[in-house]
Amino acid sequence: MIDAVVLWVDGDDPIHKKKRQRYSGEALQPETKPEGSLPTRFADSGEIFYCLKLIRKNAKWINRIFLVTDQQYPSWLDQKEKKKLDVTVVDHRDLFKGLEQFLPTFNSSSIETNLHRIPGISDHYLYFNDDMFLLKSTNSEDYFKEHRPVMRGVWLDLPSRWRLINFIRNPKRKRVLSMTERPIGLIGARAEHKMVTPRFGYRFFAMAHTPQPFSKHFVNKMFAKYDKSLSNCQYRFRDRRQYNMTAMAAQIGLKTGEILAGPSDWAYIDPDTFSDAEALEKIERLETRDTNLSLCIQSLDMFSQSTRLEMLGFLERTLRSSA
Description:
This protein is α/β, with parallel strands linked by helices. The protein contains twelve helices and 14 strands.
């Protein structure tokens, strides 16, 4: 069996806003990433509706969907819809059982570190943020082959001093992209590349903003070996000392053969990279002649109202299509 896990909060909820304000001083610490506490990180523009519905439409092989949130649930997700979609709402308190001193948390990196602790989750699970959407019909082999997760991303060289060291050590290695050549829509290297570089070489696998598969067995083995889970989930807001859970697993698993690198079948849109016009052009290409399996739309709330409506309209048409 393969489950899906989706992270979501409604940042406009007055209770959630009050929580963030109560701990806002921690967001000003020197190592805290300023972008990690911006309101757009917690904004809800209705994406969760299409995220969940498109999982059921285009991943019929998914068993249960676990919706991870902070004492909330989408207003439309009543008991009838929960049953229809087979959604179980999981509170942060379930993930941080025994680690309650780290709650409340507003940090997806901290939350991701504990997803394997969801009560009853299957050994194999597919992890989504609420801004990720399956656009086309998929099968389990797209994300798991012979029980091994198939993760999406791109191999990149580490900064120049490490690239020079790596070239001296291995001048005949295959070329990978430099940092300046990196495509858009990738999660940047954080502390994880420093933790595994001495062991695995001077390049890293930059993760795509797309659904990523996990094996609970592999995650438990990784944490037992590196003993880094507790330190990673202590930060309420994004912190430079944290590693990215998905990237950490990929760096190790791709080298040991327990994880496979998947195809570049994902699309990405965000307001820092795309103007409104460019975003709509991208949507048009996705709708008419694109073969990508998934799309991530980051910070939908930062686009103009008309562009938001156009993009939500695209998701609605994708959901209602017979393909």
